[in-house]
Amino acid sequence: MHRNQSDDSRNIFVLEAENEEHTVAFAGALAKLAVPGTVLAVDGDLGAGKTRFAQAFAAAIGVRGIVNSPTYTIIKEYEGASLPFYHMDVYRLTLEEADELGLDEYFHGDGVTLVEWASIIAPILPPERLHIRLEATGGQSRKISCLPMGIEYESWCRRLGLQQVEEEGLRQ
Ligand SMILES: Nc1ncnc2c1ncn2[C@@H]1O[C@H](COP(=O)(O)OP(=O)(O)OP(=O)(O)O)[C@@H](O)[C@H]1O
Ligand SMILES: [Mg+2]
């Protein structure tokens, strides 16, 4: 589908996290905006911090206890204080396998869904979602790039005070 220059969903917003605490703080700020049906599509290389980000987000919405990587279980459900939290890691799945799991009930459920390695299943993600890419730029430093799909998520990025940049560098 052709999308022209004025398509707002192409805007990218960036945060340079200097350390882990900074990533945790960003996850906390994002958690304050979360509502039922929020979908966070997280990508980044092995060890970039996807699970660490998910843990911080979960803690911020009041999930008690340990949030582990769901690499083998694919999906874990948690009860947060304000919202349920659905944590997925689709690293081991193909798009076809993921399609058969019926993930829509999570995406459109009462909670927040956070998907690690989300780009693998991009075609079956809901059209409105926030892509978050983590890239290691040093020992503890991470470039966090957000690509909002839909005006609601774009307004989140603006409210979070992220730096808006040209679209180059984060194509989904
Ligand atoms: N700024 C930072 N943000 C996030 N994690 C950081 C940061 N600095 C250091 N870390 C560390 O980097 C590691 C990230 O591991 P994590 O399991 O979150 O990566 P991942 O992206 O989920 O990897 P995988 O693809 O293997 O699941 C953790 O040990 C975390 O403590
Ligand atoms: Mg992980």
From TrEMBL:
Cellular compartments annotated: Cytoplasm
Superkingdom in the source lineage: Bacteria
Keyword Magnesium carried by entry: yes
One example GO MF annotation: ATP binding
UniProt keyword terms in alphabetical order: ATP-binding, Cytoplasm, Magnesium, Metal-binding, Nucleotide-binding, tRNA processing
GO cellular component, one term: cytoplasm
Record-linked InterPro entries: P-loop_NTPase, T6A_TsaE
Record-linked NCBIfam families: T6A_YjeE
Record-stated family: Belongs to the TsaE family.
Protein name (database record): tRNA threonylcarbamoyladenosine biosynthesis protein TsaE
Organism whose genome encodes this protein: Cohnella lupini
UniProt lineage: Bacteria, Bacillati, Bacillota, Bacilli, Bacillales
